[in-house]
Amino acid sequence: MDLKKLPKTEFAAAVAQIAGERNIDVQLILDSIELGLISAYKRDQKEHGTIIDEETKFEAELSPETGSFKIVEVDDDKRKDVTPPGFGRIAAQTAKQVIDQSIHEAEKETILTEYRKKIGALISGTILKIDGFKQTVGVGRIEAICPREEQVKAEDLAVGDKKLFLIKDIIKDESGRSDIILSRRDPEFIKQLFAREVPEVGNRSVIVEKIARNAGVRTKVAVSSKEAGIDPIGSCIGQKGSRVQSILGELSHEEKVDVIQFSKNLSQFIAQALSPAEGVKVVSVENGTAFVTVPENQLALAIGSGGDNVHLAGILAGVEIKVQAEKT
């Protein structure tokens, strides 16, 4: 219902004010009030000892012009006014909580509709509460959650910290409650950071082809460009490392980020994926396994702490990588 079409009565003005302040459709407010009136009527009847059959249908006929109403019992084609005498005062008292909650849910749904368009994007949020299962994060006028499985173990975040999050999804639980799900662990978080800090990624003149991430430890990002004169790695690193440093500043202090050149040539890509190790030679690739040799002084770099470098390189290339030192 259009705000401008509501008559200028006290009731209409109040509804219009709520709709305007909370950015909610007028009809949603009127529908919420009608539900509240029916709920109040049933409660009032129960308090007076009247038993209402669960199959009995009721409707609230609410005038948007004046705010006057009546409760109607609907039986097939018959409609009976069952509004109790003096019910207006009782309704105003008992329905307020229901109406407020309904309006709150309508407001939340309006906000969620906007956030559904932003799934996959970054958003700034302030951590409001932390427990063993989730972080509750304030994002604009609503709260979102970052579940434990979407958090980075190496990050020691505290209430009040302001961070960037990936809007990963909006889910509805068994009770019907909808929640915005945030993540700082998903590899897409890294991709969106690059899109934010590197204009060439944002305008797609540089493409993030693949990402392999051990959140909080190490991330490998494979990039490419089909546009002449654009160095994809240099674009992502930035002058004196300025762009990648901005990205690292948003991550755990322990996490390293390797930016490598993507290649459709598998052997070449494997060699580049094992960066920062140099002198990599791909001996063979058989049945999903790549056999690789490196100079002895590069072996530790190729494997990485806890095997993370060779493991992530394998994820990027889509093969298991077995690396050993060159025989002398």
Task: Give a quick precis of the structure.
The protein is of the alpha+beta class and 328 residues long. The chain has ten helices and 14 strands.
Which helices and strands appear, and what pairs or packs with what?
Elements: H1 10-22, H2 26-47, E1 57-62, E2 69-75, E3 78-81, H3 87-116, E4 122-130, E5 134-139, E6 142-147, E7 162-172, E8 178-183, H4 187-197, H5 199-202, E9 207-214, E10 218-224, H6 232-237, H7 242-249, E11 256-261, H8 266-273, E12 281-286, E13 289-294, H9 299-303, H10 308-317, E14 320-325
Parallel strand pairs: 10-11, 13-14
Antiparallel strand pairs: 1-2, 2-3, 4-5, 4-7, 5-6, 7-8, 9-10, 12-13
Helix pairs in contact: 2-3, 4-7, 8-10
Your description of this structure?
With 328 residues, the protein is of the alpha+beta class. The chain has 4 domains: 112 residues, NusA, N-terminal domain (N Utilization Substance Protein A, Chain:P, domain 4); 60 residues, Beta Barrel (OB fold (Dihydrolipoamide Acetyltransferase, E2P)), CATH 2.40.50.140; 77 residues, GMP Synthetase, Chain A, domain 3; 52 residues, GMP Synthetase, Chain A, domain 3, CATH 3.30.300.20. It is built from 10 helices and 14 strands. It has a 5-stranded antiparallel beta sheet. A 3-stranded antiparallel beta sheet has the order 1-2-3. A hairpin with a 5-residue loop joins strand 7 and strand 8. Helix 2 packs across helix 3 and helix 4 packs across helix 7. The N and C termini lie far apart (82 Å).
